[in-house]
């Protein structure tokens, strides 16, 4: 639910990073925060457990500049990935305008990715939103683990499992090293803005 | 779903916040939507709270408490209020999608604040209903 403030000529929109637990959603936001923290006034907010797992959400607001004369403020959120936190996950999705689905490329996490994507579809439906209509970008994270000899899912498998119906833009990435983190974010921001501008027409 | 508010509506909302709440001595007021977007905010200039983070947390907090209410069989809890040593924070729902948040010090009693907030919420409701808000 983006908000257009005609007085300040400002648009606020919400992008949520979704995906299975320990997939790297928070790491994505931390990387972005470290890149932009010198020029933003706010701090990244995290609500995590003592074990460093996201309990409720992480939150990072920042300005992406002007689009058609409007100052665009994007609020990035993550959800808790663990299955048991479904109720809080749903709360964070309220009013979402764009989604980054962070999948875990590790071969052992194949099933978890698929279940998490289905869970996203189900939770979006509770807000009468369709996964096929909302702007969405897929990110296949943890590509850096290949160097350590950890078995990873091939790109074709990830695409077949997660993107055969969605046909969304996808990135192979490493949130830890920063590979493709910013391009993923830029892609979802531009898709979200395009969708909002369409709605406003 | 995107919604917009024009200058006239936002000015009207700010007038209500200013006259009904700010003038009785609250430190900071903001109106947000349930997605955590900030619609309007006013503060006394002395405190510099990070409004955007507060809005995200407030929307999350309110949503969590509402869900708890439903689990225990309540439609909602009518009073959502956190008391601090110097500052306290009060949340009030406006229509189904908006939240009016007031931060106030020791100088105002909770009862008086609730009365003023209820009055302001009623006026804001009318302004929002006249918009293309969700």
The succession of helices and strands of chain A, N to C, reads EEHEEEHEHEHEH
Q: What separation lies between the terminal Cα atoms of chain A? A: 16 Å
Mean pLDDT of chain A: 93
**What's the gyration radius of chain B in Å?**
14 Å
Mean pLDDT across the residues of chain B is 90
Total domains of chain A: 1
* Helix coverage percent of chain B: 40-55%
Strand order of the largest sheet of chain B: 3-2-6-5-4
CATH topology of chain B: Beta-Lactamase
The number of E-state strands of chain B comes to 6
Describe this structure in words.
The complex is a heterodimer of chains A (201) and B (134). Chain A has 201 residues and is α/β, with parallel strands linked by helices. Chain A has one domain (3-189): P-loop containing nucleotide triphosphate hydrolases (Rossmann fold). Chain A has five helices and eight strands. In chain A, β1 and β2 form a beta hairpin. Chain A starts with a strand and ends with a helix. The mean pLDDT of chain A is 93. With 134 residues, chain B is α+β, with helices and mostly antiparallel strands. Chain B has a single domain, classed as Beta-Lactamase (2-Layer Sandwich). Chain B is 42% helix and 24% strand. Chain B is built from three helices and six strands, in the order βαββαβββα. In chain B, strands 3-2-6-5-4 form a five-stranded antiparallel beta sheet, sandwiched between helices. In chain B, a hairpin with a 5-residue loop joins β4 and β5 (88-94). The radius of gyration of chain B is 14 Å and the shape is globular. Chain B starts with a strand and ends in a 5-residue tail after the last helix. The model of chain B has no long low-confidence stretch (mean pLDDT 90). At the A-B interface, β1, β4, β5, α2 and α5 of A face β1, α1 and α2 of B.
